[in-house]
């Protein structure tokens, strides 16, 4: 029984590490920063790079929140379930931070 539980925990941990690696590889490798003569384009490229890192962090938090909610349903722990939903919601907000800021600014 303990071996089975430990095996499932190891399986979940490996899956989470794989998920984090895929998210980081897909977001960091997307934006190319080219030097330009216009200083505003340099700042715009830096902003795009920073927001891609923030999006990666948000996706990681979203994945972690999903794992927490899943584990809380397994163990019937309401406090872990609440923390999982809060982490999930926070990860979604962080993932779409740039779009939310663009909607606020107009």
TrEMBL record:
The lineage of its organism: Bacteria, Bacillati, Bacillota, Clostridia, Eubacteriales. The chain crosses the membrane at residues 16-37, 49-73, 85-105. The keyword Membrane applies. Keywords: Membrane, Transmembrane, Transmembrane helix. This is Glutamyl-tRNA amidotransferase. It comes from the Bacteria. It comes from Candidatus Allocopromorpha excrementavium.
